[in-house]
């Protein structure tokens, strides 16, 4: 299947601009709108409901909800209601969330993988109409059943994961995987391998598993200006977390990221350490031709859906229009040529 294209809005983005951006994205023809739930900003479920009421065609992705602060029984209730409002356009993303946020709420799970596994199972069973009694590692239920018939008995559930065991779990139990920003082509190839191993374990080899990839992007006729537009957000994302699986797969040196984390913890954003090489490894930024090459690498590495996270945030509407006008035609025309060649 040909890759699809979406947009993502984070919870810290002004709500009204998120709603306007979603309407614009649908008008421009994007396939999906993903909404993050970043604690402690605008709530993902409420925002997704508002987007559902303002759109008609796009898939709406919750990417992602943690099962920890909101019991899976309540998540199933809310998600089934939202899917009814959206008339069957919803995808539920589940992930444990940023550890620092979980620690702030004293919600660290006994087992992160068990929390996701149990969250997926309980949501599926409840949305499917079962009466559930359950005693797991992280969650328990006693004769719980939704008091209404969901619009769909099967709502797609994706996992938002990063490491090998999480990817394998996603392949085993989920319908897709959401990969957060900073992922490069090497990481996606590795992720596909881990997901495939999980699919074997879960006897899901013949089931389509969608790989959704969030991509920090800035597109401009002035490539230097585009790269400058993403430096600050890369400094923040890398600074808060330091080295991780994504940055290592991208070939960014750990010592630089450790230093960025040190500067960030000291109260300053290490923008000066984000050079062009780091931008090229962790984002897609530049001219339309440069962005085309970057996105094509991700598609060739196994991305099924490219979800654009546009910068600068002050120009989101302009960025979406540029992506539609100058990038998507390049990508779709090349896909048509490849299809004819086959």
Walk me through the structure.
- It is built from 13 helices and 11 strands.
- Strand 2, helix 2 and strand 3 (59-65) form a beta-alpha-beta unit.
- The two termini are 13 Å apart.
- It is globular, with a radius of gyration of 20 Å.
- Helix 12 (288-300) crosses helix 13 (316-341).
- By secondary structure, it is an alpha/beta fold.
What's the arrangement of secondary structure elements?
Blueprint: E1 4-9, H1 15-28, E2 32-35, H2 44-54, E3 59-65, H3 72-85, E4 90-94, H4 99-104, H5 112-127, E5 132-135, E6 140-144, E7 157-160, H6 164-173, E8 176-179, H7 185-201, E9 210-219, H8 223-241, H9 245-249, H10 254-265, H11 276-282, E10 284-286, H12 288-300, E11 305-310, H13 316-341
Parallel strand pairs: 1-2, 1-11, 2-3, 3-4, 4-7, 7-8, 8-9, 9-10, 9-11
Antiparallel strand pairs: 5-6
What would a concise description of this structure say?
The chain is α/β, with parallel strands linked by helices.
Question: Count of helical segments?
Answer: 13
The structure class reads alpha/beta
Radius of gyration: 20 Å
Q: Mean of residue pLDDT?
A: 94
User: What is the number of independent domains?
Assistant: 1
CATH superfamily: Luciferase-like domain
Instruction: Tell how many strands the DSSP assignment holds.
Output: 11
Task: Kindly report how far apart the N and C termini lie.
Answer: 13 Å
Element order: H for helix, E for strand? EHEHEHEHHEEEHEHEHHHHEHEH
Cross-sheet strand order for the largest sheet: 1-2-3-4-7-8-9-11
Largest sheet: 8 strands, parallel, barrel
Shape label: globular
CATH class membership: Alpha Beta
């Amino acid at each position: 299947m040909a890759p699809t294209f979406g947009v993502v809005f984070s919870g810290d983005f002004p709500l009204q601009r998120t709603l306007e951006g979603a309407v614009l994205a649908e008008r421009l023809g994007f396939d999906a709108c993903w909404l993050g739930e970043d604690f402690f900003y605008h709530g993902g479920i409420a925002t997704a409901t508002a987007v559902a009421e303002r759109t008609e065609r796009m898939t709406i992705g919750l990417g992602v909800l943690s099962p920890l602060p909101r019991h899976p029984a309540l998540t199933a209730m809310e998600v089934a209601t939202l899917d009814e409002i959206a008339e069957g356009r919803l995808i539920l993303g589940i992930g444990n969330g940023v550890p620092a946020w979980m620690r702030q709420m004293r919600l660290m799970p006994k087992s992160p993988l068990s929390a996701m596994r149990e969250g997926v199972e309980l949501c599926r069973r409840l949305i499917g109409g079962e009466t559930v009694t359950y005693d797991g590692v992280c969650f328990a239920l006693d004769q719980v059943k939704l008091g209404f018939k969901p619009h769909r008995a099967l709502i797609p559930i994706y996992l938002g994961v990063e490491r090998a065991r999480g990817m394998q779990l996603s392949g085993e139990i989920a319908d897709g995987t959401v990969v957060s920003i900073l992922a490069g082509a090497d990481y996606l190839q590795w992720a596909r391998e881990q997901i495939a191993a999980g699919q074997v374990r879960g006897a899901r080899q013949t089931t389509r598993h969608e790989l959704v990839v969030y991509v920090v992007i800035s597109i401009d006729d002035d490539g230097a200006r585009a790269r400058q537009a993403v430096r600050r957000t890369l400094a923040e994302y890398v600074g808060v977390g330091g080295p991780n699986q994504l940055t290592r797969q991208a070939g960014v040196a750990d010592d630089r990221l450790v230093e960025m984390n040190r500067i960030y913890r000291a109260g300053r954003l290490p923008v000066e350490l984000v050079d062009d090489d780091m931008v090229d490894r962790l984002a897609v930024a530049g001219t339309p031709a440069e962005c085309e090459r970057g996105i094509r690498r991700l598609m060739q590495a196994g991305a099924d859906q490219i979800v654009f996270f546009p910068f600068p945030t002050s120009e989101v509407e302009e960025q979406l229009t540029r992506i539609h006008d100058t990038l998507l035609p390049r990508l779709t025309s090349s896909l048509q040529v490849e299809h004819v060649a086959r």
